[in-house]
């Protein structure tokens, strides 16, 4: 059955902070090895969706299922152990540990090793003896992704990975993320302010408005429909990244 092939499912989820509702009857699903872009204007709930997946919000309706289990009320650490690898927007690398220590300290056994992370990000290999605080923004982002990979996740959650980075670094990171999704078949959910970039990196996309899904479909189809993209995300956005 198709249902059995789903890896992640949000089913009619209402969630928020305290009494405030941010996600409002939100539903979507993702099959194993697929990548999903979460798009939408500022404040529509994109980060809250990731926070809810990691167990950091209050869920008052609906269910979240992961690999066939209902994880709606699981604690965050249990979700991490179950294969959800979160790369937070703040990156959160340890500033006084070296690159190599940052990677080793969080490692769990699996296919991703120090050597493979250095293979994906040669820059981290070059800077393996530098402390976290000595890295550029782009290098910190690579380290944040590398750290998540060292936990050997089944799903990588990326919250605005390109934010504040120079165009050349954005290219390098986008290539690495594409390699993870296409080459390695690692499932991912990417929240990104730059739709053109996000659609290039992913198989599927959903667009949120006021905490719910207003569009869902293949990334390539949305990327080619400038009028739809503009209608969903704002005037002029389709020209961005050109
Ligand atoms: N910790 C929090 N406590 C209370 N409200 C919050 C909290 N974090 C976010 N919100 C509110 O939830 C709503 C959605 O925010 P969220 O950060 O999820 O949106 P977003 O789509 O990721 O926006 P952006 O693109 O600006 O990052 C906003 O109204 C925001 O003010």
Automatic annotation (TrEMBL):
InterPro entries: AAA+_ATPase, ABC_transporter-like_ATP-bd, ABC_transporter-like_CS, BCAA_Transport_ATP-bd_LivF, P-loop_NTPase. Residues 8-235 form the ABC transporter domain. One of its GO terms (biological process) is L-amino acid transport. It comes from the Bacteria. Keywords: Amino-acid transport, ATP-binding, Cell membrane, Membrane, Nucleotide-binding, Transport. One of its GO terms (molecular function) is ATP hydrolysis activity. Signal peptide: none annotated. The keyword Transmembrane does not apply. SMART domains: AAA. The keyword Cell membrane applies. Pfam families: ABC_tran (PF00005). Belongs to the ABC transporter superfamily. This is Amino acid/amide ABC transporter ATP-binding protein 2 (HAAT family).
